[in-house]
Amino acid sequence: MWIFLDDSGDCGMKLSGGSSSHLVMAACVFDDRDHVEHALELVEEARMNTAPGGERYRVAKEFKYSSTKSSHKDRFFTTMSAAEFRVRAIILDKRLLWSERLLENPSHLKNELIYQLMSSHYDTLEGAKLVIDGQDTRAFDISDRDHFMARVNLRAPGTLIDVEFADSKRNGLVQLADMTAGAIRRYHESGDSKAQTHVETFRHRAYQRNGGTYWHFK
Questions:
Q1: Domain CATH code at residue 77
Q2: Would you place residue 142 in the very low, low, confident or very high pLDDT band (cuts 50, 70, 90)?
Q3: In total, how many domains does the chain have?
Q4: Which candidate among 1, 62, 201, 203 keeps its CA 20 to 30 Å from the CA of 193?
């Protein structure tokens, strides 16, 4: 089992001073290596676009929801609909956060959301390798992978067998997690209709009956 994870939003609590109102953590879960390889092929397929004049061209930039061109997002989500994976997403509206511990230590928010996502899964995750953007280890507060694995496995034995830090620019499935998290946050923050359309392409993957989650954390 392979889990590719990324976030959208920040840990800041100055909601009227530039901090995002929402923080989203999204994990794309693959049960089989063949599914991983097929998804990587689809990411490459999503890079191929057609210009108005009919010329074919390849999108070379990293897929990031915050900066990817709208038409390229459409192409990405349409193409990835053919992949086989589950989505586990946790959505925090910081305006509703009640935990005194997290309110007093907002820098721990991302770590807490990852921990909850990985350990509260009702036996739907087992023997998984977790892949995270290596650029975000400080933000995620997971510089010590062994400590994080031990904490998760103490609560949910056998969940993780490895935590790997990858370069998102080179890892198409970390980019998939970014695009997933970004679409969810955009939709919940602003009700953006385009983001809603993107979310609808994978919302069924987050149904509990399919082994996913779409968890509004408070």
A1: 3.30.420.10
A2: confident
A3: 1
A4: 62
